[in-house]
Hints:
Layout: E1 11-17, E2 34-35, E3 38-39, H1 40-51, E4 60-65, H2 70-76, E5 87-88, H3 93-104, E6 111-116, H4 124-133, E7 140-146, E8 151-154, E9 160-163, E10 169-171, E11 175-178, H5 179-187, H6 197-203, E12 209-212, H7 223-235, E13 239-253, E14 256-259, E15 262-265, E16 268-270, H8 278-290, H9 296-299, H10 313-325, E17 329-338, H11 348-359, E18 366-371, H12 377-380, E19 384-395
Parallel strand pairs: 1-4, 1-6, 4-5, 7-12, 17-18
Antiparallel strand pairs: 2-3, 6-11, 7-10, 7-11, 8-9, 13-16, 13-19, 14-15, 17-19
Helix pairs in contact: 1-4, 3-5, 5-6, 8-10
Amino acid sequence: MAEAPPEKGQIAVILVAAGRGSRAGDGIPKQYRLLFGKTVIRRTVEAFLNAFSGHEAGVRIVPVIHPDDAGVYEQSVAGLEGLDAPVFGGATRQDSVRNGLEALGNNPPLIVHIHDAARPFISPHMIKELTMAIDDKCKGVTPALNIVDTLVRKSAEGHTEAVDRDSLFAVQTPQVFVFNEILQAHRTAAHNRYTDDASLFEASGGKIKFINGDPDNFKITTANDFMKANRMLAGNLTDVRVGAGYDVHRFEPGDHVWLGGVKIPHNQSLKGHSDADVALHALTDAVLAAIADGDIGTHFSPSDETWRGAASNAFLSHACERVNAKGGLIAHLAVIIICEAPKIGPHSTAMRETIAQIAGIDISRVSVQATTTEKLGFTGRGEGIAAQATATVRLPEAEGGL
Length: 402
């Protein structure tokens, strides 16, 4: 075990994220899919940033991505600090890792973690244990799990035979190395078929130390893995809260209204400092109320010219980000729009889709309803539109308990 942590600037992470993730099913690559409001890759990056937060060594993170994913990658990590410019991957995982290593060559670290972006549940404890394991005697270390299931080998004729599992292990990442050693091993590798860096390192003559892996540090590969990941996240969020929001805007001359992020033709418009989207305003207040974080005016002053005519999508997005910053998630959003006109029904699905996209949740977690006041009150007289909303959020258990 190392006697002291590495000095500042001497730890780097190569985050392997160039794969297509075809086994996860149709859609964008798995590393950019959402897990309760955050992409898989963002959760993985945050795991390393949090593990080294306040650590004098700090950490450099080099993402290795597919050239086609540059845009979605930037969206996924927006606002995070401590990341190097992404490096483009190659035809194989081995090529991608080597590209990441070469990118670090001009300013080489002492130690490098090589980690799959699709393993977002890596723990700070394991990251630190692996880092501290590197010393003069240990140039490479990897986590591994014992095989607990019975394994059989099937022959071409259909016969099966048991395989001795005592000498078999499931290898995980991050795999951690002395940087110069693993860089040289990659440069001199005999072939391009290695699927993990520990195997490549050993083939080059290096020795690997194994430490106990963590079953939670699994690689998201299939659709079922996403279900497992969602269950894990939900199981840690036991502080369930509900917030309410209400908003009103009067009509003024115009030819459309914005409701639920959807532009709807109408013979009047709603008056407001922003786009006057009464539905999104009510939802924003509901989300902020659920986490006791003020209201829409607290975060977006109506006297601030920055927000004149602004799309209210930004307000709801900001409120949802405040939930994510607390380690929580949006479980459900519901809004009731109260007006005589325009008709909401024809646009409700589009509103649900827009709200779900803003909040980073599935459309099944969004409800949009409409009602009238039977010609009573200001909405009944056609003077304006009101909206009432609720937001259900789940947070890590409060420090003070219930």
